[in-house]
Amino acid sequence: MSQWDKIPVYLRKPIFEKLFSIAEYTNLTKEERTMYDSSLKQKWDNKNVLDCAVQEAREEEQVKVIKNLIVQLGLSDEQAAGIAEVSTDLVKKIRAGLNPKL
Length: 102
Hints:
Layout: H1 14-26, H2 30-71, H3 77-84, H4 88-98
């Protein structure tokens, strides 16, 4: 195994790939491991930032839809919640932020 540069085709199964990954990691020097760990952490951080931004965009879009259901269609909290598939409490919060008369 220590002489192979890559995994042989007949061993390309998830369990063997994991084993080879561990073996490669343990063969790194301390400095290389630190760099690898730092790179991996940065990758995870970037993914989390992107996931968070996507979630916020979805929530903003959801708020726009709920506002339109309330203002343009004049739906009740329960109706808007049912259509937008959200809680009635969320619709009430959005309605309260729009205008006290709605």
